[in-house]
Recover the amino acids of this structure.
């Protein structure tokens, strides 16, 4: 099938087919990404890219991906040493995908980096990618020409990595170098998925562990087969976008329709329209994506949406929120959506991507828990008729461990616990990372023998894992990861705030997760307190691109550890107990999070 990309002319690209004409389907099981692409390239399926108007902007069959990647790999092999790292901006484009696979064929390790979003403006973005370039010890920073200024500044601050645009790579001279693809026991990528400006950790993906997870997802998680078609707006630097939708479908020769993340945020219903027009069977989103689409459902044109082909509507990337799923099912059930398509799962980058899946096609199970009992005893006791609504919380069951993998819930003494006992979640299996790049201390701390400490809390119910929160301090707001230190350091610089007297954390009220900042203030009158509160709110918004609830606390009201360090967990507990007296009128407080942006 001849496919053309738009080159500024009136020629229109067309969407690629959902089935290969004669290539027999092979459901993963490959030893390397190159092996998977070599097979997929024998068919006609591939990646189709849509623009903000819902038109096909370009189409890239797997055969073309392989052809262009091998050609570029030969050029890269003449410029870089095998095993070098290159940091690549993961825009939703053919150029990123070709560059990623070229690295695989050349034996060069790609480290995908995010596109700019509202993370504190230009300075925040430059600092973020500088940390990633430096952390990967990258020989080069690669991205679209439009970001060259950002890449130049970040690379210079990171120690001088060479900057290339995608166009620069294409223009490299041919060489006689013979690229050597990665073998099964070699690297695949380094993933910086923290989204933080403070020392993000690079998760190492090995060919063997990545392919093990791709196979488990395709065969046992989503049961992919010939004729399936995937649609995704998820960012390709994140594990759910990169592994779940750029790589997994390719290993089953399944076609993928891509919408840029920024375009989804502007037009959420376009996601559904693409799924309608191309009979999508597989998609995924954090809970907030379904919620955002549901809120825009009234804008859908009559007859424009039909979701009857969708058999897997996965939820991942943050805690699964039953309220969002119910809103989406109520809005689009009349338009063909089957609520049993919802597939709540659990995963993390350190496990490549997926850890558990439920039985496909089964109803979402929500466990209503009495949170008073949970808080006091650590047992997820079912809510009763006597449980008041404010103390009732619904947790979604996220299935069983993928084949070949296992999950344990352990108490504070490291002992496995029974059903409904809340503890720390540990995992084991062939998909796990060997560690963080160039960080042996953090890598060692992650493991207890062969078991990886996820840092998440949860419990088992009827053999399925239920996620209740994170033991670690990482804040996740609508699929975006934020380190509390970033907020605290920014707020401490505000005049009137006591140094070392700021705690940032997240609170889940059952409807959404929100950021709370408690800051010790110096003595001042009411007018000054109101002004200080507004300034802190502005600083937080600029620092991490998200609003927060701000509380001003009296001096020396923070909780410290025995070594003199701030205990966020105990400050958070004091907040939940109402121990911090609010000193500014409620109507002067900043508004809560109104509409999410990834």
């Amino acid at each position: 099938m001849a496919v053309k990309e738009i080159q500024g002319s009136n020629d229109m690209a067309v969407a690629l087919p959902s089935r290969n004409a004669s290539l027999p389907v092979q459901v993963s099981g490959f030893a390397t990404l190159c092996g998977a692409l070599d097979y997929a390239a024998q068919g006609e399926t591939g990646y189709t890219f849509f623009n903000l108007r819902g038109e096909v902007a370009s189409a890239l069959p797997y055969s073309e991906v392989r052809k262009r990647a091998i050609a570029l790999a030969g050029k890269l092999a003449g410029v870089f040493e095998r095993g070098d790292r290159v940091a690549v901006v993961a825009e939703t484009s053919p150029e990123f995908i070709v560059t990623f696979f070229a690295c695989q064929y050349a034996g060069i390790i790609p480290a995908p980096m995010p596109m700019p979003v509202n993370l504190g403006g230009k300075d925040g973005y430059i600092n973020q990618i500088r940390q990633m370039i430096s952390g990967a010890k990258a020989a080069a920073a690669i991205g679209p020409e439009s970001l060259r200024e950002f890449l130049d500044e970040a690379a210079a601050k990171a120690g001088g990595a060479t900057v290339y645009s995608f166009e620069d790579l294409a223009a490299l001279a041919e060489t006689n170098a013979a690229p050597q693809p990665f073998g099964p026991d070699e690297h695949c990528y380094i993933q910086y998925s923290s989204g933080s400006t403070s020392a993000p950790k690079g998760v190492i993906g090995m060919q063997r562990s990545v392919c093990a997870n791709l196979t488990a997802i395709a065969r046992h998680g989503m049961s992919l087969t010939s004729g399936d078609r995937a649609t995704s707006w998820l960012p390709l630097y994140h594990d759910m976008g990169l592994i779940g939708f750029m790589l997994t479908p390719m290993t089953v020769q399944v076609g993928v329709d891509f919408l840029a993340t920024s375009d989804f945020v502007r037009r959420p219903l376009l996601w559904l329209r693409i799924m309608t027009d191309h009979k999508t069977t597989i998609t995924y989103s954090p809970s907030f994506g379904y919620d955002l689409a549901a809120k825009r459902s009234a804008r859908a044109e009559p007859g424009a949406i039909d979701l009857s082909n969708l058999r897997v509507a996965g939820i991942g990337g943050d805690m699964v929120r039953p309220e969002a799923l119910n809103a989406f099912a109520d809005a689009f059930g009349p338009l063909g959506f089957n609520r049993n398509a919802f597939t709540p799962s659990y995963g993390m980058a350190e496990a490549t991507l997926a850890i558990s899946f439920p039985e496909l096609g089964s109803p979402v199970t929500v466990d209503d828990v009495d949170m008073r009992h949970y808080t006091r005893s650590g047992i997820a006791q079912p809510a009763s008729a006597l449980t008041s609504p404010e103390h009732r919380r619904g947790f979604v069951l996220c299935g069983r461990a993928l084949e070949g993998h296992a999950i344990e819930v352990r108490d504070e003494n490291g002992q496995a616990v029974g059903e409904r006992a809340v503890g720390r979640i540990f995992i084991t299996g062939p998909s796990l990372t060997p560690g963080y790049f160039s960080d042996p201390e953090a890598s060692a701390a992650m493991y207890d023998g062969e078991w990886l400490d996820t840092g998440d809390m949860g419990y088992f119910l009827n053999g399925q894992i239920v996620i209740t929160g994170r033991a670690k301090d990482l804040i996740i707001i609508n699929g975006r990861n934020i380190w509390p230190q970033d907020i605290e350091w920014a707020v401490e610089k505000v005049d009137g705030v006591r140094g070392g007297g700021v705690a940032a954390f997240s609170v889940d009220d059952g409807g959404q997760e929100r950021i709370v900042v408690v800051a010790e203030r110096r003595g001042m009158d009411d007018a000054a307190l109101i002004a200080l509160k507004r300034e802190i709110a502005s600083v937080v918004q600029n620092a991490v691109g998200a609003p927060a609830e701000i509380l001003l606390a009296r001096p020396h009201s923070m909780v410290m550890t025995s070594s003199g360090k701030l205990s966020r967990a105990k400050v958070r507990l004091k907040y939940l107990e109402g121990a911090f007296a609010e000193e500014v009128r409620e109507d002067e407080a900043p508004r809560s999070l109104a509409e999410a942006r990834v």
